[in-house]
Design goal:
Blueprint lengths: L1 E7 L4 H15 L3 E3 L10 E2 L4 E3 H11 L4 E7 L3 E2 L8 E4 L4 E5 L6 H5 L3 H18 L18 H6 L15
Parallel strand pairs: 1-2, 1-5, 4-6, 5-8
Antiparallel strand pairs: 3-4, 7-8
Helix pairs in contact: 1-4
Length: 171
Amino acid sequence: MNIDLVPIGDIAPGILQKLKDGLEAVFGCPVRIDKPIEMPDDAFDRARDQYLSDILLDRLRQHRKKSEHLLGVTESDIFTHGLNFVFGQADSVNRVSLISLNQLRDEQTLASGEKLLYERSLKEAVHELGHTLGLGHCEDVKCVMHFFNSLIDTDVKGRYFCSRCRPKLIE
């Protein structure tokens, strides 16, 4: 398995390198940082001041090479229909996923010198890539595949797959 990180818009290189290193440690496979792609204008919803994640996933599908799992990373605030925002989203059929750093930031991340932002982004990246590997949500609150919709939930769970999820991983 290979993982390709694709910055969407401007992303600080430091966070991308940390994500690369963290994903290599969790998955034990090569991770490559690809060239950035531009944020598509048609994804922006002016009324919401957010980007529609479904359009971003579509752009990633067009960018994906056959042999890799692709993870888009954006600083922009994203949403999908029916939700106010999303931390990330995945298309398991096409093995593409997306995370946004926007909603993972808060006062705590500013005080921690970005260390907490890195931890949160790694957990979200592993979670979304887990979906591209065939995993659903897990009931174990410490498992990275546990569904979360708040930063408190994100901070509680770990960055690894639990003993029930790990054997279910498919390539």
